[in-house]
Amino acid sequence: MNQVSALTSAIVAEGGAMRGIFTAGVLDALMQAKHCPFDFAVGVSAGSTNLIGYLCQAPGRSKQIICDHATRDDFISWRRYLRGGHFCDVSWLWHASFADIPLDLQYYQRQKRPLWVVTTGVHSGKSHYFKISPDNLHQVFPASCAVPLAYRNYPVIDGEPMTDGGLTDSIPVEFAYRQGARDITVILSKPLGYQKRKSALPVLTRPFFRGYPKLYAAVLRRAQRYNRALQFITVPPLDCRIRVISPPADFKVGRFTKDTALLEQGYLQGIGAAQIYLQDV
């Protein structure tokens, strides 16, 4: 992994599938205000796909993808899943949306403001961080979003199968700090105060991880790692300032919400939260 050098300011975005509509609203408001002072960005899953739209200066792109492409049966389908296919076809979503709403990757490269995206190694059970370029984006973004079981394949990057980055680093704020950022803005996809509880579900899904013991161990530790990131945000190191943009308590969008009215409400809540944030920066 290459080190980022001489960078001091970062923006970090959590994933959360359809909850990413809040982040879409936040980033559209920042684009409207021409606010992009960050030296680099770090995202995972839907947070990463939101951030590439922001760094390419594509207002409205993420909202359109979430409210249109992501609500189609091509993306989420119980019927397909019960027939042995994907519940969430993240590869289709990435490639179809990229074809329909292209990104200005030349602009992204000219700005020299890199985006780092998190995935989880299937064999290692560890986080991997990839610096996005035109050469790897079509592999990295689907891998970061590939929730185990919901997406039945493990996308391969550099010869290694990968899965959802949120399993091992849902809020990659500590990674941003390790890379030198001391002024960090974090966009969460759940209201402030949320704590992840250890779920019984991983025990029930253990047979599906047969052959991948380290990945299963990562699944069991997910709540602990998530809450550790929240603790880092709440009590950062003395040399670091962290500002948080999070959904309000009445945010109603869930991971697989397809209701367009709720998605529109979540988007507007993101815009509102960003406007409050901009008053203090």
TrEMBL record:
Residues 11-177 form the PNPLA domain. It comes from Lacimicrobium alkaliphilum. InterPro entries: Acyl_Trfase/lysoPLipase, DUF6363, NTE, PNPLA_dom, YjjU-like. A motif (GXSXG) lies at residues 43-47. The keyword Nucleotide-binding does not apply. The active site is at S45, D164. A motif (DGA/G) lies at residues 164-166. This is Patatin family protein. Keywords: Hydrolase, Lipid degradation, Lipid metabolism.
